[in-house]
Amino acid sequence: MKLCMGQINTLVGDWRGNADKIISVCHDAALHSPRAVVVFPELTLSGYPPEDLLLRPAVAEQAEAMLERLCAELPAHLWVIVGYPKKTARGLFNAAGVIHDGAVVAEYFKQFLPNYQVFDEKRYFTPGDEPCVVDVDGVLLGITICEDIWNPEPAAKAKRAGASCLINLNASPFHRGKRRERWDLLAERALANDFPIVYVNQVGAQDELVFDGGSFAVNPNGELAAAAPDFEEGSWWLTLTTQAGVHIIEGPQAQPLDELAAIWQALVVGVRDYVNKNNFPGVVLGLSGGIDSAVTLAIAVDALGAQRVHALMMPFRYTASMSIEDAEAEATALDIAYRSISIEPLYESFMASLADEFAGLSANITEENLQARCRGVLLMSISNKKNLLVLTTGNKSELAVGYSTLYGDMAGGFDALKDCPKMLVYALARYRNTVGQCIPERVITRPPSAELAPNQEDQDSLPPYEVLDAIIEWYVERDASPADIISQGFQPEDVHRVIRLIDLNEYKRRQAPVGVRITQRGFGRDRRYPITWAWRNS
C-alpha cells in the first residue's frame, strides 16, 4: 500500500481554497499511485482553529457543499481521509471522512475534545464515542483525530474493532520540545496496540498559533519509520507491507531541527503567514539599534524577503551614536528600505502643547512614555499611508512585567517576539548570525537599554534578565507559587516584585498585538487572567 501524508497549510474559513488544495494534492498523488491513501490534517476544509466561526449556521452548509465537491472532483480510486466540521441531529462534530469512488464511505467523530492551553473544543463540538475502521485493499485502517492519540482509549477501541494500522489527523501547534513529545507518545501507543501509526499534521500559522508539520509514522515496535520535514508544506509518501503484519517499510527520513532552528522557523512562519494571509504588501518596524528590533528585522526579512520590509530609525537626544550606527549596519546587511526621522521636533511640539497641564509638576516616566508614543505615531502613520503592517518588537520578559508603553512601542499589528523571553532573544541573535551575519556583535554584548533617559539601562528597573526570565517561567508557565519559586534559590524581594508586576500588567497585555506562540503558555489564548481582581498570590 502507498500512503501520502498531505502536510498542507490551510486558511481558516477559506472553504474553496482549502478544497482546491486538497484536490490538487490528490490529483498529483493519483499520478504517483492511483489507489493510494491520501491523508490530510484535522479540520482540513474549514482550517484550524475556526473558533466561533463554528457557531455560525452556514458552517454546516459550507462543509456539506465542499464535501460534495470533493466527492465529485477527487480521483475515484484514491482513498482520501480529510477533516471537517459535521452537523448532525446530535450536535456538531469534529469529523474525519473517508472519500472513495465519489462518496464518503466512512466517517469518524473525534472522541477527546481538548479544553486546555489554546484549545476550546468543548465550546463547539460534541464528542464522538465510536471507532472507525475501513478496509482498504485488505489493510484495516483505524482513524483518530489529534487529541484522541494523547489518550489510550481511542487507539485501543480501534484495535478492538480490528484495525491493523492507525491514522491520526492533527492540527497540533508548535511549542519548544513538542516533536519529541509526539514521537515518544506514538511509540507508546504503537507498542500498546501492536500496529503502526501514521501521524499527519498541519503546517503554517493561524494568528498566534504555528503548526510545524513534522508528520511522521512509527512501526508496531514503536520505532520511528518515517519523518517529514518541519515547517515545510508538501506531500510525503509511505510504503506499507502486509507481510507478517502491517509495517511501514519506506518513507521520508527528515532530520528534526535543533531547538533554536525550530524556534526561528516558527517565528518566520508565524510572521509570513500572518502578513500574507491578511494580504499586507509588507511590514514596517522601528529599528532602534537594540537586540529586540535587530532580531525582529532578521525574522521579517527571512519571512518576507528584503523588498517587503521597511525600517525606521527614530533617534532622540538620548539615542547613543552606536545605536544609530548599528541600526544602519543591520539595514545595510539585510538590504532593506531604511530611513531615519528624528522625534525631537514631535516631542518638543507635544511638550509645548502640554506645558500648561504640566506646569509645576516634576519630570517623571511621562516624558519617557511620550518619546515612545512619538515613535508609535510615526510608525502607525506610515502603516496607514502605505498599508504596511507594523511589527512591534517587545519580548515576553517586557510584556510580563509591563516594561513597555501603551500606544508607544506596543503600537502595531503583530509581535514576532511576544512569547520569547529576553535571554532566548539573545540566543536567537547568535543563531541567526551563524546562518548569515546580520546583527552586530556589540548589539548582542552591550547592556540593553530603552534609551529614554540619560545612561539608562534595563537593569536599573528590573532584575537581571537571567533572573527575571526564570521567575517568569516558574510563575507563568508552571503556575508556581511565590514560596515555590523562592525555594529554587531566588531572592524573595525579586520574586514578590516580579509577580506583582506580572499581576498588575494584565491590562497592558490585553491591548498588546497578537504574536507568535512558542512556549507551552504564552500571553493570549493560553493565559486568560482577569484585569480587575482582588486575590493575589502570596
What do you see in this structure?
The protein has 538 residues and is an alpha/beta fold. The chain has two domains: 2-248, Nitrilase/N-carbamoyl-D-aminoacid amidohydrolase (4-Layer Sandwich); 261-459, Rossmann fold. The protein is built from 17 helices and 21 strands. It has helices at residues 15-32, 58-73, 152-160, 178-193, 259-277, 291-304, 321-334, 344-353, 355-358, 365-386, 396-401, 422-435, 441-445, 465-477, 482-486, 492-504, 506-510; strands at 2-7, 37-39, 79-88, 91-100, 103-109, 133-136, 139-145, 165-170, 197-201, 203-206, 209-212, 216-218, 224-227, 234-241, 247-250, 283-286, 309-313, 337-340, 389-392, 414-415, 514-515. The model has no long low-confidence stretch (mean pLDDT 95).
Give the fraction of residues assigned to helices. Answer: 25-40%
User: What is the global morphology?
Assistant: elongated
In CATH terms, the superfamily of the largest domain is Carbon-nitrogen hydrolase
Compute the number of strand runs: 21
What structural class do the secondary elements suggest? Answer: alpha/beta
User: How many domains?
Assistant: 2
Architecture per CATH nomenclature, i.e. the level-2 architecture of the largest domain: 4-Layer Sandwich
Question: What share of residues are in beta strands?
Answer: 15-25%
Tally of separate helices:
17
Mean pLDDT across every amino acid position: 95
Strand order of the largest sheet: 5-4-3-2-1-14-15
State the CATH topology of the largest domain.
Nitrilase/N-carbamoyl-D-aminoacid amidohydrolase
CA-based gyration radius? 26 Å
CATH class of the largest domain, named: Alpha Beta
Query: Main beta sheet, described?
Result: 7 strands, mixed
Gap from first CA to last CA: 60 Å
Contiguous runs where pLDDT drops below 50 for at least 5 residues: none
